Amino acid sequence: MEKVILASQSPRRRELLSRVFSSFDVVPSFAEEVAAKTSPDEYVKTLAKAKAEEVASRVGADCLVIGSDTVVALDGKILEKPKDGDDAFQMLSDLSGRAHEVYTGIAVCKDGKTIVEHETTRVWFRELGADEISRYIASGEPMDKAGAYGIQEKGAQLVRKIDGDYFNVVGLPICRLCEMLHLMGYTTL
Question: How far is residue 159's CA from residue 148's CA, in Å, rounded to a whole number?
Protein backbone atom coordinates (compact mmCIF):
# COMPACT_ATOMS: atom_id res chain seq x y z
CA MET A 1 0.00 0.00 0.00
CA GLU A 2 1.12 3.54 -0.71
CA LYS A 3 2.12 5.92 2.01
CA VAL A 4 -0.90 7.32 3.90
CA ILE A 5 -0.70 10.93 5.08
CA LEU A 6 -2.96 12.69 7.57
CA ALA A 7 -3.01 16.41 6.75
CA SER A 8 -3.74 17.44 10.35
CA GLN A 9 -1.92 17.93 13.63
CA SER A 10 -5.03 17.08 15.65
CA PRO A 11 -4.21 14.37 18.21
CA ARG A 12 -7.87 13.32 18.10
CA ARG A 13 -7.79 12.75 14.33
CA ARG A 14 -4.49 10.90 14.66
CA GLU A 15 -6.00 8.57 17.24
CA LEU A 16 -9.12 7.95 15.14
CA LEU A 17 -7.19 7.32 11.93
CA SER A 18 -5.16 4.67 13.76
CA ARG A 19 -8.40 2.65 13.88
CA VAL A 20 -8.28 2.47 10.07
CA PHE A 21 -4.54 2.38 9.25
CA SER A 22 -1.83 0.78 11.38
CA SER A 23 0.77 3.06 9.83
CA PHE A 24 0.55 6.61 8.49
CA ASP A 25 2.46 9.86 8.58
CA VAL A 26 1.27 13.23 9.83
CA VAL A 27 2.06 16.23 7.64
CA PRO A 28 0.43 19.47 8.84
CA SER A 29 -1.22 21.56 6.18
CA PHE A 30 -0.12 25.13 5.54
CA ALA A 31 -3.38 25.91 3.71
CA GLU A 32 -4.97 29.06 5.02
CA GLU A 33 -8.11 28.28 6.96
CA VAL A 34 -10.02 30.98 5.17
CA ALA A 35 -13.09 30.18 3.14
CA ALA A 36 -16.16 32.17 2.25
CA LYS A 37 -18.63 31.70 5.07
CA THR A 38 -21.24 29.69 3.25
CA SER A 39 -23.31 26.87 4.67
CA PRO A 40 -21.46 24.87 7.35
CA ASP A 41 -21.29 21.74 5.14
CA GLU A 42 -19.78 23.63 2.18
CA TYR A 43 -17.42 25.49 4.53
CA VAL A 44 -15.90 22.32 6.03
CA LYS A 45 -15.67 20.61 2.64
CA THR A 46 -13.83 23.61 1.18
CA LEU A 47 -11.32 23.68 4.04
CA ALA A 48 -10.80 19.90 4.10
CA LYS A 49 -10.10 19.94 0.35
CA ALA A 50 -7.68 22.87 0.66
CA LYS A 51 -5.76 21.10 3.45
CA ALA A 52 -5.54 17.76 1.65
CA GLU A 53 -4.56 19.25 -1.71
CA GLU A 54 -1.93 21.54 -0.16
CA VAL A 55 -0.25 18.58 1.54
CA ALA A 56 -0.62 16.40 -1.57
CA SER A 57 1.21 19.07 -3.57
CA ARG A 58 4.21 18.68 -1.22
CA VAL A 59 4.32 14.93 -0.64
CA GLY A 60 3.61 13.67 -4.14
CA ALA A 61 0.65 12.33 -6.04
CA ASP A 62 1.46 8.71 -5.18
CA CYS A 63 0.56 9.25 -1.51
CA LEU A 64 -2.95 8.88 -0.14
CA VAL A 65 -3.66 12.17 1.66
CA ILE A 66 -6.57 12.69 4.07
CA GLY A 67 -7.65 16.20 5.07
CA SER A 68 -10.42 17.15 7.46
CA ASP A 69 -12.07 20.14 9.09
CA THR A 70 -14.75 20.30 11.81
CA VAL A 71 -17.07 23.07 12.95
CA VAL A 72 -20.04 23.38 15.25
CA ALA A 73 -23.10 25.23 13.96
CA LEU A 74 -25.88 26.72 16.04
CA ASP A 75 -28.88 27.94 14.08
CA GLY A 76 -26.71 27.84 10.95
CA LYS A 77 -24.01 30.08 12.51
CA ILE A 78 -20.53 28.53 12.41
CA LEU A 79 -18.70 28.22 15.73
CA GLU A 80 -15.03 27.42 15.28
CA LYS A 81 -12.34 27.31 17.98
CA PRO A 82 -12.79 30.06 20.60
CA LYS A 83 -10.48 33.07 20.40
CA ASP A 84 -10.23 33.38 24.19
CA GLY A 85 -12.00 32.49 27.42
CA ASP A 86 -14.74 35.06 26.92
CA ASP A 87 -15.46 33.67 23.45
CA ALA A 88 -15.57 30.12 24.87
CA PHE A 89 -17.95 31.27 27.62
CA GLN A 90 -20.28 32.85 25.07
CA MET A 91 -20.27 29.74 22.85
CA LEU A 92 -20.98 27.35 25.72
CA SER A 93 -23.71 29.66 27.08
CA ASP A 94 -25.33 29.74 23.65
CA LEU A 95 -25.16 25.94 23.35
CA SER A 96 -26.58 25.37 26.86
CA GLY A 97 -29.89 23.51 26.84
CA ARG A 98 -30.05 23.46 23.03
CA ALA A 99 -29.37 21.26 20.03
CA HIS A 100 -26.65 22.07 17.51
CA GLU A 101 -24.91 20.37 14.60
CA VAL A 102 -21.33 19.24 14.17
CA TYR A 103 -20.04 19.20 10.59
CA THR A 104 -16.85 17.52 9.45
CA GLY A 105 -15.55 17.79 5.92
CA ILE A 106 -13.24 15.05 4.64
CA ALA A 107 -11.10 15.11 1.53
CA VAL A 108 -9.12 12.16 0.18
CA CYS A 109 -6.46 12.84 -2.49
CA LYS A 110 -4.58 10.29 -4.59
CA ASP A 111 -3.01 10.51 -8.05
CA GLY A 112 -4.45 13.98 -8.68
CA LYS A 113 -7.99 12.85 -7.85
CA THR A 114 -9.85 14.28 -4.86
CA ILE A 115 -13.07 13.04 -3.26
CA VAL A 116 -14.77 15.40 -0.81
CA GLU A 117 -17.67 14.57 1.51
CA HIS A 118 -19.04 15.71 4.85
CA GLU A 119 -20.82 14.23 7.84
CA THR A 120 -23.34 15.91 10.14
CA THR A 121 -24.24 14.93 13.70
CA ARG A 122 -26.89 16.59 15.87
CA VAL A 123 -25.88 17.14 19.50
CA TRP A 124 -28.03 18.20 22.47
CA PHE A 125 -26.51 19.95 25.51
CA ARG A 126 -28.06 19.93 28.95
CA GLU A 127 -28.65 23.24 30.75
CA LEU A 128 -25.34 24.61 32.01
CA GLY A 129 -24.75 26.98 34.91
CA ALA A 130 -22.34 29.91 34.55
CA ASP A 131 -20.12 28.49 37.33
CA GLU A 132 -19.69 25.10 35.63
CA ILE A 133 -19.02 26.77 32.27
CA SER A 134 -16.29 28.83 33.98
CA ARG A 135 -14.79 25.73 35.61
CA TYR A 136 -14.80 23.88 32.29
CA ILE A 137 -13.05 26.79 30.59
CA ALA A 138 -10.50 26.93 33.44
CA SER A 139 -9.60 23.30 32.64
CA GLY A 140 -8.23 24.56 29.30
CA GLU A 141 -10.03 21.84 27.37
CA PRO A 142 -12.37 24.09 25.30
CA MET A 143 -9.68 26.31 23.84
CA ASP A 144 -8.55 24.18 20.88
CA LYS A 145 -11.92 22.71 19.93
CA ALA A 146 -14.67 23.81 17.57
CA GLY A 147 -17.66 24.97 19.59
CA ALA A 148 -15.48 25.12 22.72
CA TYR A 149 -16.01 21.53 23.85
CA GLY A 150 -14.62 18.03 23.42
CA ILE A 151 -17.17 15.22 23.65
CA GLN A 152 -14.39 12.66 24.16
CA GLU A 153 -13.08 14.38 27.31
CA LYS A 154 -14.67 16.35 30.18
CA GLY A 155 -17.06 17.87 27.65
CA ALA A 156 -18.93 14.54 27.66
CA GLN A 157 -20.58 15.86 30.83
CA LEU A 158 -22.29 18.59 28.79
CA VAL A 159 -23.89 16.32 26.18
CA ARG A 160 -27.36 14.93 26.83
CA LYS A 161 -27.58 12.94 23.57
CA ILE A 162 -26.46 12.77 19.96
CA ASP A 163 -28.08 11.74 16.70
CA GLY A 164 -25.47 10.55 14.22
CA ASP A 165 -21.82 9.57 14.16
CA TYR A 166 -20.04 10.00 17.51
CA PHE A 167 -16.62 9.98 15.81
CA ASN A 168 -17.76 12.92 13.66
CA VAL A 169 -18.15 14.98 16.84
CA VAL A 170 -14.62 13.97 17.87
CA GLY A 171 -13.30 15.15 14.49
CA LEU A 172 -13.10 12.29 11.97
CA PRO A 173 -16.16 10.27 10.92
CA ILE A 174 -14.54 6.88 10.44
CA CYS A 175 -17.42 5.19 8.60
CA ARG A 176 -17.72 8.03 6.04
CA LEU A 177 -13.93 8.02 5.55
CA CYS A 178 -13.93 4.25 4.92
CA GLU A 179 -16.74 4.63 2.37
CA MET A 180 -14.64 7.23 0.56
CA LEU A 181 -11.57 5.01 0.68
CA HIS A 182 -13.59 2.14 -0.81
CA LEU A 183 -14.60 4.44 -3.69
CA MET A 184 -10.89 4.95 -4.33
CA GLY A 185 -10.26 1.21 -4.38
CA TYR A 186 -8.95 0.68 -0.84
CA THR A 187 -10.12 -2.03 1.51
CA THR A 188 -9.88 -1.10 5.15
CA LEU A 189 -10.81 -4.35 6.92
Answer: 13
CA angle in degrees (0–180, nearest 5) for 20-103-114 = 60
Can you name the residues that pair with 40 across neighbouring β-strands? none
d(CA 185, CA 69): 23
Q: What is the pLDDT of residue 16?
A: 97
Q: Is the pTM of this model over 0.90?
A: yes
Residue 41 a catalytic site member: no
What's the pLDDT at 34?
Answer: 67
Report residues of the chain scoring pLDDT below 70.
1, 34-36
Looking at beta carbons, which pairs linking 175-178 to residues 24 or more positions away fall under 8 Å?
176/106, 176/117, 176/118, 176/119, 177/20, 177/66, 177/106, 177/108, 178/20
User: What's the one-letter identity of residue 23?
Assistant: S
pLDDT at 35: 59
- Identify the active-site residue in 41, 62, 69, 165: 69
